[in-house]
Specification:
There is one protein chain. By secondary structure, this protein is an alpha/beta fold. The protein has eleven helices and 14 strands. It has helices at residues 13-26, 54-64, 77-82, 84-104, 139-158, 184-195, 213-225, 246-254, 269-275, 284-290, 298-310; strands at residues 5-8, 31-35, 46-48, 68-71, 109-111, 114-115, 162-163, 165-167, 169-171, 197-200, 208-212, 237-238, 242-244, 261-264. The chain has a six-stranded parallel beta sheet with strand order 3-2-1-4-5-7, sandwiched between helices. A three-stranded parallel beta sheet has the order 6-8-12. The chain is globular, with a radius of gyration of 19 Å. The termini are far apart. The structure holds serine. The site of serine (SER) has 10 residues, from loops. Residues 76-77, 115, 117, 140, 167, 169, 180-182 line the site of serine.
């Protein structure tokens, strides 16, 4: 059966790359990019959509009768702390609106991203397991944790095939990140090439789990391709990626740009968020259930970022 796919939040860091990958896989006209704002360039079907506007969303579902929906619209961790109620509303009501419409229109699969932000200061920091204490203290984090519970609930209660990944910080060269705590790991490459220096808002030894976008997109497609009986987790899968500190990234960048210098800004509010998150993640379930395997390590990711941004 031909797929018809709605990607809600298509202009963001993930959406930009996911739409391209889905169009390569399923055909340009099968993938409808949807965002609250018009994109800068349109090279396939696009619809303006606000995930908080149920009647507008319903019209989209009626028009396209999607078989798959990817809901990417969200406020991230740093921006969410500036607009806590807005973050909760967008992240939670947006999800519930889409889950309800997915049921009503008998959508085959739904994808919704969660995050390492679902963990908190009392979660184990190293090799954080799938199941452990979770006490996130950012609105973004607890909206994602609550969202995970809803996803599992819609699966168990209504049989909706919803799948999810707890993404680490995502690093790509095609689109800018949208206000998160892990954004430094993208900004650093732009500034390294533009100015050969970077002032980092996290301290030099702040380790966080990160992932090159190609791996994240591949993981998403692999999870969505997996047979339903292989999916043992209907909340959201841990995904490990590469764990590194700003200093380790700076050392790697210096292998390409020997004079690159990094300095560290103190007292940025994002430091406290990073300090409450895991340093590394155990993704055994993703490996076992749907064969997940990371391809890009720190060295390869750094080379890819610099080579592509140079062009
Ligand atoms: N990268 C996101 C953030 O920093 C986490 O999911 O908010």
């Amino acid at each position: 059966m031909a797929e018809t796919i709605l990607v809600l939040g298509s202009n963001g860091q993930i959406g930009t790359e996911l739409v391209t990958a889905l169009r390569q896989k399923f055909g340009e006209n099968q993938v409808i990019a949807c965002d609250i704002k018009e994109p800068l360039e349109t090279d396939g079907p696009f619809e303006q959509a606000d995930v908080l506007d149920v009647s507008g969303l319903r019209k989209l579902f009626e028009k396209y009768q999607p078989t798959q929906v990817y809901l990417l619209a969200a406020l991230l961790s740093a921006v969410g702390e500036q607009k806590p109620k807005k973050a909760w509303e967008l992240n939670m009501d947006g999800l519930l609106n889409v889950l309800d419409l997915a049921l009503e229109f008998k959508v085959k699969n739904v994808f919704w991203p969660s995050s390492i932000a679902v963990f908190g200061p009392n979660s184990p920091r190293e090799n954080t397991p799938q199941y452990c204490v979770m006490d996130p203290n950012t609105v973004y984090g607890f909206s994602k944790l609550a969202g995970e519970r809803w996803c599992e609930y819609y699966f168990q209660k209504y049989g909706l095939d919803v799948r999810s990944i707890r993404y680490p910080g995502l690093i790509g060269w095609k689109a800018a990140p949208g206000g998160g705590t892990t954004d430094y790991a993208v900004h650093i490459f732009h500034e390294a090439l533009a100015k050969n220096s970077y002032e980092c808002f996290l301290s030099e030894n702040t380790a966080l789990p990160m992932m090159f976008m190609n791996d994240a997109i591949r993981a998403t497609l692999e999870l969505m391709d997996a047979p339903a009986e292989k999916i043992s987790i209907r909340s959201s899968y841990n995904l490990g990626g590469i764990s590194f500190t700003p200093e380790m990234l700076a050392v790697e960048i210096r292998k390409h740009l020997p004079n690159f210098s990094i300095s560290y800004k103190e007292n940025d509010p994002r430091q406290a968020i990073a300090d409450s998150w895991p340093k590394s993640i155990d993704d055994t379930y993703a490996q076992k259930d749907w064969g997940w395997k990371l391809k890009f390590d720190l060295k390869e990711m750094t080379a890819e970022m610099l080579n592509n941004l140079k062009k």
